[in-house]
Design goal:
Elements: H1 16-32, E1 47-48, E2 60-63, E3 69-71, E4 74-76, H2 78-91, E5 96-101, H3 107-119, E6 124-127, E7 130-131, H4 132-136
Parallel strand pairs: 1-7, 2-5, 5-6
Antiparallel strand pairs: 2-3, 3-4
Helix pairs in contact: 2-3
């Protein structure tokens, strides 16, 4: 009676499929990540310790330190802001207006812009800030 020797089991790990899966996951997350790009208007947002991320909406009013007003990226003034804001709010699903103002602007101008937004029947006003951790960097 002849005994056969133990058969050796091949225990090598083929990592080629693992690398393929990792690259596919990397591509998926790169393509599905939502990168928020700021418009080309230079602002220094004020900081707040209670700042929270808020999704970007269609209606953004920017106030620069030179007191220039922008509705999204279109330059406007106080006289025509109301009518242009009404048009934008009618086209938008969410009736929220985000106000991005430079930290050195006149408070009176910010109050006028908020008043115009309410006259245009905005359902919500969000004043954009950046978190204090972001300001330290």
């Amino acid at each position: 009676m002849e005994f056969e020797g133990r058969k050796r089991v091949d225990t090598r790990l083929n990592i080629a499929p693992l690398i393929d899966v990792v690259f596919l996951l990397l591509i998926f997350f790169m393509l599905s990540a939502h990168f928020v790009t700021q418009p080309g208007i230079k602002l220094t947002l004020p900081t707040a310790s209670t700042a929270k991320l808020h999704p970007e909406e269609d209606v953004i009013i920017s106030i620069t330190n030179d007191n220039d007003l922008y509705l999204n990226e279109e330059k406007v003034n106080l006289d025509n802001l109301l009518e242009k804001l009404r048009v934008k709010l009618n086209k938008s699903q969410k009736k929220t207006v985000i106000i991005k103002a430079d930290e050195k602007i006149d408070l009176g101008l910010a109050v006028k812009v908020m008043d115009i937004a309410k006259q245009a029947e905005a359902e919500g006003l969000v004043i954009s800030t950046k978190a204090e951790e972001d300001a330290k960097q």
